[in-house]
Every structure is written in C-alpha cells, then in structure tokens.
Write a structure and sequence with these properties.
The complex is a heterodimer. By secondary structure, chain A is an alpha+beta fold. Chain A contains three helices and five strands. Chain A has a single domain, classed as Ubiquitin-like (UB roll), CATH 3.10.20.30. Chain B is mainly beta. Chain B contains one helix and 28 strands. Chain B has a four-stranded antiparallel beta sheet with strand order 3-2-1-28, with no helix packed on it. The longest helix of chain B is centred in the middle third of the chain and has 4 residues. The radius of gyration of chain B is 19 Å and the shape is globular. Chain B starts with a strand and ends with a strand. The chains are: A alpha+beta, B mainly beta. At the A-B interface, helix 3 of A face loops of B.
Chain lengths: ~90, ~375
C-alpha cells in the first residue's frame, strides 16, 4: 500500500502523521488518509475537492499532473508527499 | 463596556484589556504566528470567532468559548458545486471561482436569533449559519442575483462582502456592503435582495456609469444601532451618508484632509456623529503629510474636526484598513490599528488618544468585546 506523508507545516495546524493506506490513484489514497484525519481535507483540497492552488502532491518524486482529479496512479510502496507548492518569494 | 479589545493581526489575535483609565495592555495572544484576518466577539453568549487565512492551506474559522483560552476549528463556509457548463465569468470576462478565498466579514444575528451568524466572503458569497458556525449555507438569493455577476474586485482579484449590518429592529433585514458591488438589502433573511446604493458616485468609472448603484465601491458601511435608518459609508472616492434606510445616499463633501480611506465608525446612539481615518488616495495610500489623523463629525457631515492629540504627526505611514476602526457600545471609546502595527485607543470620543502599542504585527481588524 502507498504511504502518505504530509508536510510538517500542515501538522502544526492539524494532526496528520504519516500513514499507509490503500488506493490505486493519488486521490484514492488521499481520501483514505482524510478519513483517518478528517481535519486535513480542507487544508489540502478546496471547496470543489480540487488540490488547493498553492499545494502540491508528489508521487515518487513527481508532481501530480492532474491537480483536479488527482488521478495519477500509485503503486504498492509508493510515497505520496503533500506539501506547499513553491510560489511567491 | 467590558474594556476588552480584540486586534486581529498578520501574526495572531491579541486581546487587550483596560487596566485603568487610558491604560490598555495586551493580555493574551491566540494563534501567535498565524494570519488572523478578523474576529467576532459574540455578545450574545461570550463566544469569540476568529477567521484565519493560512495562505497555502486556505481560510479557516475557529471558535473559543472561553475568551481565547481554547479554540476549536469550525467548518469554514464552502461554496457548492457550480452548475455544469462553461466556467462563470464576471462582466470583464474573467473567471469567478466557486471557492472560498477569504472570510471578509462576520457578524452575529440578533439576541433573539441564537446561533445565527452571517459571513461575507471573497469571491462575493454571503453565508448564513444557524448553529454557531458548525455549518454554513450559501445565501443563494444574493449569489444567484443576475447583478452579482456585474460585481468586480476592488483592490483584490475578486469582489467581496466586507460589511454586514443586521438591522436591530428585525434580524431578517440585513444590509451588506460589497467592493465593488454597492450596498444590498434583504428583508426576508436572504431569500431576495435589492441593490440599495442609489446616490453613491464612482469617479473611477466612465461618466455615464458613475451613478450605477451596482458598480459602487463602498469600502465600509456601518449602521447606527439606535437610529437604524442611518448609515455611513467610507467609499473609494468619498464619504456618503443615508438617513432614510439606504433609500438615497448623499455625498459628504470636504472631509479633511482627504475623502479617501477605508474605515468608518458611527456613534451607537447619535447618527450624526461619525469617525474616519483618511489617507492619501489612491496610488500612494499613506497618511497625508505623514500625519495620522482621525476626522470626526458631530453634525452629520456638515463640519469635521481633525483629531490629532496623541497621534503621530511626523513621518507616520500607518494605513488603517476597513475593519481596523471600532467604537464601543457606550460611544466614547474608539480604537484603531494600522498596517505598521500601531494601535491607539481613545476614551473621550477621539479628543485624546493613547498608544497601546507601536510594535504589533500589521493590524487587520479591531473590535471591542
């Protein structure tokens, strides 16, 4: 199963330790993680369930290409990293 | 008059207590390091609400039942799914997201409406809660009004509701102020709305549109609690007053030293007394000549006094945002905070000011509890 890791900056606001969850896409894995830590969802996704404008999700070190659907495939043992996008100065 | 003041700042929510006459001190800080954009002390039950903007992580709402000692995160207002089809655009063809950008105003219902809260947001949605912010519903009567699509951002990318005036005579009558969208009124708790900014003038528009009530940019609108048919507005290019329940707004000329500003306060029982913190418009947005001043009228805007006692008069570049001036229920105490972290309080209607601090983070909102 993939492993989801949230940025430490996020854990300052809401508990969300690393977790191992099922899922064949980044969306599926993240939804399982949000079920474990319900407070996190609104910090990562916006009103429409899309990745927040200044957030990024990396799978195997690559930024998810599908920021709306997060349909990027994930495999057994993959690490999904949720972090702030570098924007601004 | 509790002698308690909440200052929402770029780096936390500061509660400030009156220790003695003219002696106000920071007592407690909540959310130190975080961006608190505004706070609402709910006088019905003593709760405090705080709106935060975490940037990357979005806008959030928190509730404290115990004067800031503990906080619980509430659901932030959320926009429903937009209708299928092409993305919604404003009158200039720019897309309008159905997403919460910022909580820009937060007000309580009347004492007879326990649990009722109103939240104004960017990009222009008004939300209502009936359960102390546990859940929120977009007020569709305003959001779906065809003229809402004519609103545009003023100083922001999207339009926003910055002022919510709940009529003390009837909690179903609510007036909101929109930048840039004028003033709007509901008589039925949000089901239907009419624009009520007739008489406002926008000098930044082509002449034929200058009096279009839907295109006005009131920076802040306040309502006199004891004379609720009286409203004051600090508009982008002037000061306006209505004494007939927003039937007609009159432009007040000659506000010294400038008609530009963001904030306005009205006396709680004297509709003819109002305070402003003018600044040099529009391109510079600094106090005129580096002097922080408050303009006060006691006669409905026929004349103004410039209040300077206790305020810096040399090389002061404090700008005061729209929510950063407040007056307490008694009408003698006012407070305002600035973008450079200064906070001043008066206990005699502005004749004399005392400095609470010159070193706070940038102040976004000030509110007496």
């Amino acid at each position: 199963m993939p492993r989801v890791v949230f940025t430490a900056n996020l854990q300052r606001h809401v508990p969300c330790p690393p977790c191992t969850v099922p899922g064949a896409t980044a969306r599926q894995a993240l939804e399982h993680a949000f079920a474990l830590f319900p407070g996190v969802r609104g910090y990562v996704l916006d009103d429409q369930g899309e990745l927040r404008h200044h957030m990024a999700v990396f799978v195997r070190g690559q930024a998810c290409a599908d920021r709306r659907g997060l349909s990027d495939p994930v495999a057994e043992g993959d690490e999904i990293v949720v972090m702030q996008a570098l924007s601004g100065g | 008059m509790t002698g308690l003041l909440l200052a929402s700042t770029r780096k936390g929510l500061f509660s400030i207590r009156r220790k003695a006459a003219g002696d106000w001190r920071v007592e407690h800080v909540s959310f130190l390091g975080d961006n608190v954009t505004l706070a609402l002390p709910d006088l019905r039950d003593g709760s405090w609400y705080a709106a935060l903007d975490h940037g990357h992580f979005g806008a959030k709402l928190h509730l404290s039942p115990d004067g800031g000692a503990t906080w619980t995160e509430l659901a932030a207002p959320a926009y429903p799914a937009p209708p299928a089809g092409p993305e919604e655009t404003d009158s200039m063809g720019r897309p309008i997201p159905w997403k919460l950008i910022r909580i820009w105003s937060l007000e309580a219902g009347l004492p007879g409406q326990p649990g009722v809260l109103w939240a104004g947001t960017l990009p222009g949605g008004l939300f209502r809660s009936e359960d102390r912010g546990e859940s929120w519903t977009l007020v569709r009567g305003l959001w779906d009004h065809p003229d809402r699509r004519r609103w545009v951002g003023g100083g922001t990318d999207y339009p926003g509701i910055h002022s919510i005036c709940v009529d003390p005579r009837d909690g179903d009558r609510v007036t909101v102020g929109v930048s840039c969208g004028g003033a709007w009124r509901t008589e039925d708790s949000g089901a239907t709305w009419t624009c009520c900014s007739q008489g406002m003038r926008a000098e930044y528009l082509p002449a034929e549109q200058a009096y279009d009530p839907v295109l006005q940019d009131p920076h802040r609108i306040v309502q006199c609690p004891a004379w609720p048919e009286a409203f004051w507005a600090q508009h982008h290019n002037g000061v306006f007053r209505s004494l007939d329940d927003c039937g007609k707004w009159e432009e007040i000329q000659g506000v010294p030293p400038s008609v530009f500003g963001f904030a306005v306060a009205v006396h709680p029982s004297d509709p003819m007394s109002a305070w402003f913190v003018p600044a040099m418009k529009d391109e510079r947005r600094i106090p005129l000549d580096g002097k922080v001043v408050v303009a006060r009228t006691r006669d409905g805007g026929r004349s103004f006094e410039l209040l300077t006692q206790g305020l810096p008069q040399t090389h002061a570049y404090d700008l005061v945002y729209r929510h950063a001036l407040d007056i307490d229920a008694g009408g003698d105490r006012l407070a305002f905070g600035s973008t450079t972290g200064a906070l001043w309080v008066t206990e005699n209607g502005g004749d004399d000011w005392v400095t609470v601090s010159e070193h706070l983070p940038p102040v976004y909102a000030v509110r007496f509890a």
